[in-house]
Design a protein that fits this description.
single chain, alpha/beta, Rossmann fold, 7-stranded parallel sheet, globular
Length: 368
């Protein structure tokens, strides 16, 4: 099956004589193709998702067996997406307060208990998340990515925030894409560092952002300052056709607003699908900064495929798992002893590490 996301791609498929029953059309205006589609009857199995369809063409498609999913006018975000989000899309309406933004409204829509009982709405959320996964896979194809995990409460005026920003910056300089959970705190810092190519601009950005340390009590002030800083960073910075600062957040955690320093955002309704995607797409490894419950969950989600890796296969292709913060991970939240116990005698043991500084962490991610 072939997914078509643009008029140009549909025109090419029609010109090539591609059987229509092998196509999935998403978010396209079909009016310019009305006459050409009227001449086709190989429509049984064609799936049309959220397209604009003239009434007579709609009848023709249905009569010949096409499956049509209409637009959902009450959804605050587009369900049938051909690309990941830009931060500005999610923050549309910020000048009137965060509560009016597409992001906040999507959270309210996602958490509506009555809508949660609606099978149709559940299906739409699943279609949206599948589009996120497809678009993310396309963006990362053939690239090496490092996931950076850490607490969402880390404030902008702390040494830990600066360390996370430097980590993101150094990973990109070493040739990796940086993936985070896309939220505030350590996630924002890592995305900031990955987004900013100039060390001087990064230092200046850190100084400015410290004026609003947290998204509490005001997401509005936190986000608006970030947009201002992002504009300053982008001024004079060469456009990168291969985005390397990616956020993967979820509306499940509605109290965590998405950060602004992502080239692209894959935001999910399903937290389970989002977490699995974040871990599995970190194909070069994961760096874990100090965090709490959510970060611990991600650690052991990353451990599972390492643990069950086929012992008869060489382990060189396993991603690395690097915990940063000896005291935090051995005393405050002693995850490390359990990781070592799991890894004992398995290929996993060569791929899990604990370090206490950034230089030691970067030794596990050599320049590409």
């Amino acid at each position: 099956m072939q997914e078509i996301h643009s008029g140009e791609a549909l025109r090419a498929a029609l010109d090539a004589g591609t059987p229509l029953n092998q196509l999935r059309l998403e978010g396209i205006d079909l009016a310019p193709f009305e006459q050409r589609l009227f001449g086709r009857t190989d429509l049984e199995g064609l799936v049309v998702l959220g397209c604009s369809i003239p009434t007579t063409l709609d009848l023709h498609l249905r009569r010949h067996g096409a499956i049509i999913f209409p637009k959902e006018p009450n959804a605050p975000v587009s369900i049938y997406r051909a690309r990941l989000y830009h931060p500005a899309e999610l923050y549309t309406g910020l000048s009137h307060g965060y509560a009016t933004t597409a992001d906040a409204q999507a959270y309210e829509w996602a958490m509506d208990t009555e809508l949660g009982k609606d099978t149709y709405i559940s299906m739409l959320k699943a279609i949206h998340d599948d589009a996120m996964s497809d678009n993310l896979a396309d963006l990362l194809e053939g690239r090496r990515a490092v996931g950076v995990m850490g607490g969402h409460n880390l404030e902008r005026d702390t040494g830990g925030y600066r360390l996370a920003a430097e980590l993101g910056h150094r990973l990109v300089e070493a040739g990796y894409v940086v993936l985070t959970g896309g939220g505030p705190g350590a996630m924002e810092a890592a995305n900031l560092g990955a987004f900013t190519r100039s060390p001087d601009k990064l230092a200046h950005a850190l100084e400015r952002l410290a004026a609003v340390p947290s998204f509490r009590p005001s997401i509005d002030e936190w986000a608006q300052l970030a947009f201002d800083v992002r504009r300053d960073i982008s001024n004079g910075q060469a456009r990168d056709d291969n985005p390397h600062s990616i956020g993967i957040p979820t509306w499940f955690y509605g109290h965590e607003p998405p950060n602004i320093f992502c080239h692209a955002i894959a935001k999910y309704f399903s937290n389970a699908e989002r977490e699995d995607g974040l871990v599995t797409r970190s194909n070069a490894g994961i760096v874990v900064l100090p965090g709490a419950a959510g970060t611990v969950q991600e650690i052991f989600q990353a451990c599972t495929p390492l643990y069950y890796h086929d012992e008869d296969r060489p382990g060189a292709d396993l991603p690395r798992l690097v915990l940063v913060g000896l005291q935090h991970w051995t005393e405050t939240l002693p995850a490390w002893p359990l990781i070592r116990a799991l890894a004992a005698g398995r290929p996993m043991a060569e791929h899990v590490h604990i370090v206490d500084d950034l230089d030691a962490a970067m030794e596990h991610f050599p320049a590409r």
